[in-house]
Amino acid sequence: MAYQNPKSALQMVESARAAFQTGATKDVNFRMKQLKQLLRMYEENNTRIVEALASDLRKSRQEVEVIEIELLVHDLKNTIDSLHEWVKPERPPRSFANWLDKTYLFNEPYGVVLVIGAWNYPLLLTLLPLAGAIAAGNCVIIKPSEVTPASAKFMQEAIPKYLDNECYQVYTGGPSETTELLQEKFDYIFFTGSTHVGRLIHAAANKHLTPVTLELGGKSPVYIDNTADIDVVAHRVVWGKWINAGQTCIAPDYILCNKEVEAKFLKAADNVLKKFYKTNPKDSPDLCRIVNDKNFQRLSGFLKGANIALGGETDAKERFIGLTVLVDVKDNDPVMEEEIFGPILPIVNVTNAYDALNYINKRDKPLAMYIFSNNKRDVRLFLDNTSSGGVCVNDTAMHFTVCALPFGGVGASGMGRYHGKYTFDTFSHKKSCLYKSLGGVGEKLASGRYPPYSQSKTSALRMLLKYRKGISLRYLPHLTMFVLGLIASCGFKYFANTLFLNKNA
């Protein structure tokens, strides 16, 4: 398929770099204008966004408006309200040796950054990092997923109408176009997608020593014990698993529980599924479809030879897979060998929390972990003894919606983090600065570092550089006046010898 891009990858990156070098994006007022234009794009294109996602994934209006549009708007409004505060230089604490100096951390844009979006939430997972990159003062090349063409077309047509055409550009295409982009030098790359492709992105970035954020996935476990309210658990697990037909990077991937809890969950889940999607889920307007034939065939393969406790219906023509729960699942079953990313939920039996811990820790670190329990000791056991991108206790997926919490993976589930200020920080280089005065008392106090060296100078410097726990600058002005007075009355050499270098003491 031929993609219509107004410029080649090289031309696009070069024009974005030329725009960055003008300094336009470093102006906070310019950034604010672009962010407000982005907000206007969301508000004026609600219907078109709904139609694009219905075309790509048969998403219902509510899923689009709440999970894609509203999360984008919420995060963007928070960024707009906070931007002037975020861009201010930070003032890190000073050590004793730097009492007379000033320390700063400047939030500096990287330059020209590449944002590669995902197909499962094609707008949310592309435009949310875009907003943070704009806020941080970067120029951005946006690469939407080719798997969701209607959403990609919307971004290619809408973004130039609302944002600066040189600073923010959309490059569409498939793997070959992405490869062309990755041959160019970027100052930062933000990728959302599979672990397999993430490794390729990371390898390409390494050629230019380009820093990356990789938002990947993995098999996110759900532990359920017999202290949890199974009816509530069923509602929350079923919702978290089957929104977007399970095509969510933080969807519950498999359940860990004992046989008693399994029986209760199956009964409750069956009731919840009928409540959510009626007796014939395929006819429900609230259930998405599998994105393409390739993924449909991959998911259908997991059902062959499996013990299906609930669901299992498939329709290749409609790319429909029923809401399916598998039992008696073994470690070497195909469904347990990769991230499912679809409406299939295996249950693996364990005897207790320790059993579940061992099972989780033998696998790659997941993007999310879910714990359903009223036993605080066991919850703490999981929090202290497992590693995952994030944890949600007694719910699923909802931690993603809290912009005050950073979102990101660890190990095979990714690197880096974003949401709220964390997105701004991701796209900002923290440039450190020590600001010293020329001459004066500061120069006299530091003169011991200059040759010729001596034991007395070494002792004085070690005293200045000595770590002091919990030191407070509250009385710094008074101490400074005392030191200055002492130096003035005694002379620097006498002051150093008596205060720091009393060899006879």
Summary, kept brief:
The protein has 505 residues and is an alpha/beta fold.
Question: How would you explain this protein's 3D organization?
Answer:
The chain crosses the membrane at residues 475-496. Residues 5-432 form the Aldehyde dehydrogenase domain. One of its GO terms (molecular function) is aldehyde dehydrogenase (NAD+) activity. The chain has 18 helices and 17 strands. With 505 residues, the protein is α/β, with parallel strands linked by helices. The protein has three domains: 9-216 and 419-430, Aldehyde Dehydrogenase, Chain A, domain 1 (3-Layer(aba) Sandwich); 221-409, Aldehyde Dehydrogenase, Chain A, domain 2, CATH 3.40.309; 437-465, no CATH class. Strand 7 (221-224), helix 9 (230-242) and strand 8 (254-257) form a beta-alpha-beta unit. It is globular and about 85 Å long.
Keywords:
505 residues; alpha/beta; Aldehyde Dehydrogenase, Chain A, domain 1; Aldehyde Dehydrogenase, Chain A, domain 2; 3 domains; 6-stranded mixed sheet; 17 strands; membrane; Aldehyde_DH_NAD(P)
